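Minutes, project check-in
Item: structure for the 236-residue chain
Input as provided by the requester:
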Amino acid sequence: MYYNDIHKHAEEFPQEEVCGIIYLDKYHSVNILKAANNSINKTASFSIDPKTFLKYKLEYTIIGIYHSHPNSTEKPSAQDKKESEELGLPYFIYSLQTKKNFIYYPKSYKKDNLLGQPYIKGFNECTCLFKDVYKNNLNLDISVWNKNYWLPENHSDANKLLIKILNKNMSKVEPFDLQKYDLIVFNINQKRYHVGVYMGSDMFIHQPINSLSCNQTLDDRWQNKIKSVYRHPQFV
């Protein structure tokens, strides 16, 4: 897994912030490309040479930038947020102190294509697609609803976080009263909840774990798995 490679890279150089890019190859596999840290203060910051970054951008499909925090938590610093906004790319941060991950999405981020995307933990998950649909189709930035897009590993914790965020920011509606852009919460296997966005005409868009993001018919099989439906305040 790409994040295990990032952890190893960080642990090889525990006294400095390591850095690099996370990219998608032509086979839809996720990889990392290590970069030299050109910062004058490597213990507290990182810097990738602009020419090197441009070269990477021309050669690879970059999905994010990664770096480590050797002496602090996984939470992004003010500088991290500023640079992420400037690049328009998510930042993946791994803390050697807490052994935890953080994925920060800048407001400037906008995905080019929503369909045909492979599942990538932290980057292309069902909740990420929910965020991206609202940004691309409605110009609504809901990335601020959740600070860290590296979701809890425990299914119960992840489910509680999802429902907490939805109850705080959206209105719960009856499943039989679906409107376009309603969020559908599915209980597929009694473990981790899955979400999709209703697109009208009995179709919804979602990011399956073992397949590409797609539009799919909300047939009886899917309708029977609906746990709840939420509507953005703009459409209530």
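Outcome recorded: The chain has a mean pLDDT of 95.
No further action items on this chain.
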